[in-house]
């Protein structure tokens, strides 16, 4: 062991390459981007540094003491700069007695990775009377946040950890050298102005920064020379307004032009507020700045009203959106219960994730059925939506139906032929609200039954409102966490709460896959319990069941020697034809309007 490892601290060893690590019991997992350490090494802490997709990972076997990262950071190695513990990404496995599970530390990049001689300075907050009274205000380097906090005592599961957000004792920028910029991209969301305000006020009052620019009009504003000088006085009241005072746009991400503009203007802190596509663009900007070896940090603040950013507990503006959605649902309920066979149909935002629809339904308690993208549904036949609507109208005389904008896309035949996208690359969805509205009207007309349907689409009303009190506080925490991380030299990260604790998350990690409603979770079960709606089977299973029944009938006839009769036409219209007809009528209605 001693011949294959380099001692860097008492009881801590560094394996210098992958082959040595493998000889010491480290095994490459084919389907995982990590290594595992064999339990045979559990006699003492062992560190393995290796490369996976150009990212450095630090692996530790053995108990992690509070001073471990301090010992590691004192180790000088030219490959990783002065601070080994501040590498781009590290995975830290901790051996558990009787288990070979791995603990992975998903760290974020630091400027010292490519600027090893970068000087640090005492944090100005040490002299700020508002913070000196707070004991243990500064975050230690070895403070981590666990992604999962629920494990089984008998068999602890693999765990992923992120670096805890907050102010550090050392910063890598002097206040008078900082030139920061803020940009908002993508669609509107409650809380955008609050985040802008708190970044400006945090930099100004906490760190003494006086040079802050607002980039006007999204990513394209970087190379369009559109900037706004921001001060606490300028942004003092903007949190009471909806939208964004900086303006926004989709697309316009030209890496070369944006990076050139950042360098030409002397900007060294870039705060990017946006959703999934915007954050991926931020990662590209970070990589290009790193490649050029400049002292510039990129901090992302995730924004999505749909709450579909992975890892973090929730996105800002979500609470405000759910609260505003109640107004539309309440109006639909009043309309529906005031007439015979009244249906209030409300379409809410939710392209790929049905969180707004689900939480608004749970909060309202007036909704009879909630349709989301994660749960396929069908209209006709046993267990279909039409059957449930008839049942509820017979029981109550009215009903409220909530549908997320991304639900039912597979039922609308145009989805298979039209692949239009917006400037951000998002697939343009067909209007499920209009389609469902027309489908219900046609169905009730075919059965000669009375239907009074009111359709409400509050989509843009919901996202254009100012943030509520809860989101205002949340936006403040996000903004200040981003500031502390940028001043401490971290870059290529996004911020957000993980199990209630704010953390720095590698941008690409947060955008790996969207956060979707888990239909096997108890929250979805609570919704089904509240609405008593059917847990819809997929259309494929329904068709397969019909085919099986038909085959059984014909097989029975053949066994008895009887001739196989010609299949009679029934009142059941094929679902595909019904969908196509409803869709055509929906288009006609839309054109007429």
UniProtKB/TrEMBL annotation:
Do you know which InterPro entries this protein is assigned to? ATP_PFK, PFKA, Phosphofructokinase_dom, PKF_sf, PyroP-dep_PFK_TP0108
Cofactor(s) demanded: Mg(2+)
Q: Which UniProt keywords apply?
A: Allosteric enzyme, ATP-binding, Cytoplasm, Glycolysis, Kinase, Magnesium, Metal-binding, Nucleotide-binding, Transferase
The residues the record assigns to binding substrate are: 304-306, 349-351, 405, 460-463
Q: Where is the Phosphofructokinase domain?
A: 180-484
Assembly mode = Homotetramer.
Under PANTHER family, the record lists: ATP-DEPENDENT 6-PHOSPHOFRUCTOKINASE 1
Q: What is this protein called?
A: ATP-dependent 6-phosphofructokinase
What is the species listed in this Swiss-Prot or TrEMBL entry?
A: Riccia fluitans
Kindly list the organism's lineage.
Answer: Eukaryota, Viridiplantae, Streptophyta, Embryophyta, Marchantiophyta
What is the gene called?
PFK
């Amino acid at each position: 062991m001693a011949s294959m490892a380099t001692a860097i601290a008492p009881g801590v060893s560094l394996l210098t390459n992958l082959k040595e690590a493998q000889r010491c019991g480290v095994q490459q997992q084919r389907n995982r981007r990590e290594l595992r350490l064999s339990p045979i090494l559990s006699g003492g802490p062992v560190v393995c540094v290796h490369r996976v997709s150009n990212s450095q990972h630090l692996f530790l076997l053995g108990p992690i003491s509070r001073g471990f990262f301090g010992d590691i950071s004192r180790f000088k190695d030219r490959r990783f700069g002065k601070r080994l513990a501040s590498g781009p990404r590290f995975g830290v496995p901790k051996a558990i007695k009787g288990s070979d599970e791995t603990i992975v530390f998903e760290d974020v990049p630091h400027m010292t990775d490519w600027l090893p001689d970068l000087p640090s300075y005492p944090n100005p907050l040490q002299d700020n009377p508002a913070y000196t009274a707070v004991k243990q205000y500064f975050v230690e380097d070895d403070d981590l946040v666990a992604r999962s906090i629920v494990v089984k005592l008998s068999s602890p599961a693999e765990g992923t950890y992120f670096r805890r957000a907050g102010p550090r004792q050392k910063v890598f920028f002097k206040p008078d050298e900082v030139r920061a910029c803020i940009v908002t991209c993508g669609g509107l969301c409650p809380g955008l102005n609050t985040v802008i305000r708190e970044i400006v006020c945090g930099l100004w009052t906490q760190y003494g920064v006086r040079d802050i620019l607002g980039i006007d009009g999204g990513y394209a504003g970087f190379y369009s020379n559109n900037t706004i000088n921001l001060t606490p006085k300028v942004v003092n009241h903007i949190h009471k307004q909806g939208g964004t005072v900086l303006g926004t746009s989709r697309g316009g991400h030209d890496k070369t032009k944006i990076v050139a503009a950042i360098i030409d203007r002397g900007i060294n802190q870039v705060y990017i507020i946006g959703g999934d596509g915007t954050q991926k663009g931020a990662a590209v900007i970070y990589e290009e700045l790193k490649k050029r070896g400049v002292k510039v940090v990129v901090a992302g603040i995730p924004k999505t009203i749909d709450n579909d950013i992975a890892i973090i507990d929730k996105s800002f503006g979500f609470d405000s959106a759910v609260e505003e959605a109640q107004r539309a649902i309440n109006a639909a309920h009043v309309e529906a219960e005031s007439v015979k066979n009244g249906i209030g149909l409300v379409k809410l935002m939710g392209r790929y994730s049905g969180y707004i629809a689900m939480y608004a339904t749970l909060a309202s308690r007036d909704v009879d059925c909630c349709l989301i993208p994660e749960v396929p549904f069908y209209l006709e036949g046993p267990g279909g939506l039409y059957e449930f609507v008839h049942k509820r109208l017979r029981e109550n005389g009215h009903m409220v139906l909530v549908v997320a904008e991304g639900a039912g896309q597979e039922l609308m035949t145009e989805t298979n032929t039209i692949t239009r996208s917006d400037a951000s690359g998002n697939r343009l969805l067909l209007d499920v609200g209009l389609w469902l509205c027309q489908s219900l009207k046609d169905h009730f007309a075919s059965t000669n039954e009375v239907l009074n349907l009111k359709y409400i689409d509050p989509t843009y009303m919901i996202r254009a409102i100012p943030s509520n009190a809860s989101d205002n506080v949340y936006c403040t925490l996000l903004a200040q966490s981003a500031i502390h991380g940028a001043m401490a030299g971290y870059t290529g990260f996004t911020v957000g709460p993980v199990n209630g604790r704010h953390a720095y998350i590698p941008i690409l990690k947060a955008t790996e896959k969207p956060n979707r409603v888990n239909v096997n979770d108890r929250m979805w079960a609570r919704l089904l319990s509240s609405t008593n709606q059917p847990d819809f089977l997929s259309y494929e299973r329904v068709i397969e069941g019909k085919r099986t029944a038909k085959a059984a009938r014909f097989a029975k006839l053949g066994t008895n020697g009887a001739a196989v009769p010609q299949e009679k036409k029934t009142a059941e219209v094929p679902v595909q034809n019904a969908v196509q007809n409803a869709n055509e009528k929906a288009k006609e209605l839309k054109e007429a309007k």
